[in-house]
Specification:
460 residues; alpha/beta; Rossmann fold; Helicase, Ruva Protein, domain 3; Zinc Finger, Delta Prime, domain 3; 7 strands; 8% strand
Length: 460
Amino acid sequence: MGGLEGRTTDMELFEQTGGEEVATATRQPLAARMRPQTLDEVVGQTHILGAGKLLRRAIEADRLGSIILYGPPGCGKTTLAEVIARVTQRRFERASGVLSNVAELRGLMKNAEHHKQHGGKETILFIDEIHRFSKSQQDVLLPYVEQGTITLIGATTHNPFFFINSPLTSRSQIFQLEPLPEEAVSALLQRALRQDPELSERTITLDAEAAAHLADVCEGDARRALNALEIAVLTTLPDEAGQIHITREVAAESIQKKAVVYDHDEDEHYDTISAFIKSVRGSDPNAAIYWLAKMLYAGEDPRFIARRLIILASEDIGNADPRALTVAVSALSAVDFVGMPEARIVLGQATTYLATAPKSNASYLAIDAALADVKEGRTLPVPKPLRDGGKAGRKAFGYTGYAYAHDHPEHFVDQEYVPTDKIYYQPDGQGYEDTIVKRIQHWNHLRKTKQEKPTHEKQR
């Protein structure tokens, strides 16, 4: 943790120990030992650290204000914070959204204030997993960020606009980091073999296929790839010539099963279900099946997926294929009945059916447009012929004249059903809606030709 009064900070430790820094580092995992020391050593993130980019200019000019680094695990948020402290030569204090409390935060602030008042170095306060701080903990930071007592660098894997207080985000610049591309991870692995004090002492051959496998399976998480390489090296016996040979098989054993990044109530959950629904809506069954597989593999509740398919069946397919809703509802029933793992088959069938069905959102647009009119406009009265004329005394108020559709040719009669000419439902002819369009056009033609008056009336 970063220091309270009297503690030695990480940066001060580096300054004081000199050569001992290497000795300390070698006891750390490979990923920690390989942290870059300069901006040029940082791989990836060229969209924010490339030549001429805002963040790089601010760091090099030592004009950096408080920032929030947002990105997936292992993309370099902590590394970048430490590099910034080195380049700007500021004190570096750290806290954790999981372990730190308000008392510790206040102590860190007082420490930073003391250094600033006595002409010492400015302080960078790095808070890992800042999204885990409560509102009150985040509020503690506000006056110190506002006054410039500290330069805050927050790191989060969660969307800061949802999980961090708006007063704090408004006082910080937000930079989104991306997962490292495979070529960047492969380059890091080769750099580790050359530069790490422990690995460089050994004769190690890393097959190209092994490096590619580690880069692929880690999914942009450099920490995971480097630590898997270290495990592979430490657990592989050298041959007679003293050489350690890391094959694809050895690499696969070292990294084991791919750990899908998926949180069940936060960003990855919502991003993946969003990709799934948009793929079905976009009529891409292959993409939809992939996102379905990711969710099931990660342990998503299959009933949640089925419920979303039911909504989609009405919202995005509607009357273009009325059977879609039946398929989706049946899928939910079947998922409940059979459970996993067999439920994956049911969801696969429902997903591919809906993805390949004709699409129309006409009924969805119709109900929302009508609801908007009811909410924002004048409530229309029910036409008298449509009111319940069967109640005692209501005929005296003129609640008569309803024309019973089944007493007319084609079971259709032209009469006022709502006192407005606005059209809410506008099918565009997709799939079965082509039949609906033709039917509506035919009824409109009958209205124009003024169909015969009814021969007798019925109260309904």
